[in-house]
Amino acid sequence: NVRQTTIGSYFNKI
Amino acid sequence: MFEARLGQATILKKILDAIKDLLNEGTFDCSDSGIQLQAMDNSHVSLVSLTLRSDGFDKFRCDRNLSMGMNLGSMAKILKCANNEDNVTIKAQDNADTVTIMFESANQEKVSDYGMKLMNLDQEHLGIPETDYSCVVRMPAMEFARICRDLAQFSESVVICCTKEGVKFSASGDVGTANIKLAQTGNVDKEEEAVIIEMQEPVTLTFACRYLNAFTKATPLSTQVQLSMCADVPLVVEYRINELGHIRYYLAPKIED
After folding, report:
1. Beta-carbon contacts below 8 Å between A and B
2. Can you list the residues of chain B whose pLDDT is less than 70?
3. pLDDT at residue B28, rounded to an integer
4. First-to-last C-alpha distance (Å) of chain B
5. How many CB atoms lie within 10 A of CB B163?
6. Which distant-in-sequence residues (6+ apart) come within 8 Å of B244 by Cβ?
7. DSSP code at position B244
8. What local confidence, expressed as pLDDT, does residue B43 receive?
């Protein structure tokens, strides 16, 4: 099963 | 006071075309150094980062840092009113709630201005970490657009596999399978037609075709596109805008559960 990740899981809020 | 002037409206039209399918609205952060926009698409799968350097404009004045939230659909409507060769000037007073976009024909005989309400967008900024990418591919932007369009017929996802021999784009679905391999260009006569691969380590990643196709709306801005990849981090798709800046799209990968 392939799952789409989100940008928020790689880049942090500043 | 903020004022930025470009010699040709066509560049701004192309920039807007490159972002408006992904973003409904965006905040243009203006400072001495230029204009920046950073925003995620609605699903937070991709991030658009646009940089326009002040020295790329015919005229640029920014007395005080300014954030202008704009509805990109409205901006597109206004830009439709410009001829490609028109000069375009974007103006705003400090703390204004409207922006003025002005077009002037090359012979100065037609001058039009459009006012647009600014929006207060509460957009979060993300810090993009410095990354040492395992593979960086430069290739003709038209070729990349063609590959994304072709593979989208076969699957929602495309697998990009980069080795020192070349880069392979694959998709498989109900119709069957598709594989497109590009080898690194041997003799580069024309730089804009070259495929150049800088590889530290081979990498294989899976991405949603829908977003890749949205990124290729930037194709008219640049002859070449650069893909930067590293295991388990977002892909960077970069289009340089000649003498003005760049647009970078970050796309979160699909991963095996």
Report:
1. 57
2. none
3. 96
4. 52
5. 14
6. B11, B52, B53, B56, B57
7. T
8. 96
Token pair of B199 as six digits: 């590889």
- For residue B165, what pLDDT is reported? 87
Q: Does B236 touch chain A (CB under 8 A)?
A: no
Q: Tell me A8's DSSP state.
A: G
pLDDT tens digits, one per residue of B28-66: 999 999 999 999 999 999 999 999 999 999 999 999 999
| CB pair distance less than 8 Å for B43 and A14 | no
Whole-angstrom Cα distance, residue B230 to residue B233?
A: 6
For residue A1, pLDDT over 90 is answered with no
Judge: B252–A3 Cβ closer than 8 Å, yes or no.
no
Among chain A residues, CA nearest to B235:
A7
Here the tokens at position B67 are 């954030």
pLDDT value of residue B21: 95
ipTM of the complex: 0.97
Q: Is B80 left (phi over 0), alpha (psi -120 to 50) or beta?
A: alpha
Contacts of B36 in chain A (CB under 8 A): none
